Structures are given as structure tokens and as C-alpha cells.
Amino acid sequence: MRRSDIWLAASLLAAATVGCATKDARVTYHDPNMDFSLVQSVAVMPFSNLTTNTGAGDRVRDVVMTMLQATGSVYVVPPGEVARGVSRSSVVEPHYPTPEEAVALCKMLKTDGVLVGTVREYGEVRSGTSSANVISLSLSLMEAQTGRVVWSASSTKGGIGAATRLFGGGGQPMDVVTQDAVDDLLEKLFHK
């Protein structure tokens, strides 16, 4: 092999290896004064959806509720009860309850916290001829006594890496990318 061929092969291999990793900002806030073992039940509010996909907030909320319940660490209030509580406690904006609204809602639903979320990206992204699915999601936990945020984190999963650009392929299905992001966030919640 010629030197230029070896150099090209080595460059492509390095780019493919780097492109395999999914970018993920490790942004997390944990209130150092909060005892998270006291959080036994949570109400997951409807998620704010900043994407053009009108159903993204509901789909991601459903995945978060299911995966959070599956941990066995907390009880997740069913969405119908949350909706009824939002209506009865007169929460003006369910996506962003005020601290006072969060306290009233927790009291009504008998929960230890309220989980709010924002879906910033959801769906397919394109770059040239390549495409892949991506999700960007933020979650925050408001505690029941004061309504203050005691935990907040973000996760971005999926997207187009160097390997996809070089060799093609469509990345992971949207449900897999969503589960990866939620799993990352739950890991951040339960393990400081």
C-alpha cells in the first residue's frame, strides 16, 4: 500500500471511531440540602414542546413516566389524576407551574414532588445526504414543601456523527434514542 492510502485509511478509521460516540452535555443540578430518599411519589406534568412535532411532548412524557415507574424507586401518579389535580388546583400553565402552584398540586395529589420537562429537539435531522434521529430533553424536579427546584438535568442523544456522514446509515430509531435520553436523565437523578 502507498503512504497516501494508509493515511486515508487511518483517517477514516479515526473519524469513524470518534463519530460513534453520541454527544451529551453533562449538565446536572442536585440541591445539596435535599434528601432524595424522601421522594416516594411524583406527578409528571405535561411537557413543554419546543419542536415542530406536535406530539413530541406527550410521547416523551409517556416514556419518562413508564421508565420512572419501572425503576421501582417512586410512585408515578397516573396522568388522568395529574390532569384532574391541575384543573382543581387552578394551575395556570401546567408546563411551568409556579412554586406556589407546585405546592398546592402536591398537597392535592399527595405527592412529594412535581416533575416538569421540556422537549427541545425531537425527530430526524439531516446533514447533506445523511439523516438520523435526535432528542434533546430537560427535566426538573420541584419538591412539595416549598415548590423549589431541587434537581435539574438535560440530555441530548442521537444525531449525525462522523461515521454516519462517511458511511451512511440512518442512526437509531426514535424510540431507542428517546429511551437512551430518559435513561441518562434517570441515571443523573438517582446517582449524583
Tally of distinct domains: 1
- Gross morphology: elongated
| Strand tally | 7
Number of helices: 6
Please give a handful of descriptors for the protein shown:
192 residues, alpha/beta, Rossmann fold, seven-stranded mixed sheet, elongated
Structure, explained:
- This protein is α/β, with parallel strands linked by helices.
- The chain has helices spanning 3-19, 56-70, 79-88, 99-109, 162-167, 174-190; strands at residues 28-30, 41-44, 48-49, 75-76, 113-127, 130-143, 149-158.
- Strands 1, 2, 3, 4, 5, 6 and 7 form a 7-stranded mixed β-sheet that branches.
- It starts with a helix and ends with a helix.
Task: Please provide a brief summary of the model.
The protein is of the alpha/beta class and 192 residues long.
What is this structure's SSE topology?
Layout: H1 3-19, E1 28-30, E2 41-44, E3 48-49, H2 56-70, E4 75-76, H3 79-88, H4 99-109, E5 113-127, E6 130-143, E7 149-158, H5 162-167, H6 174-190
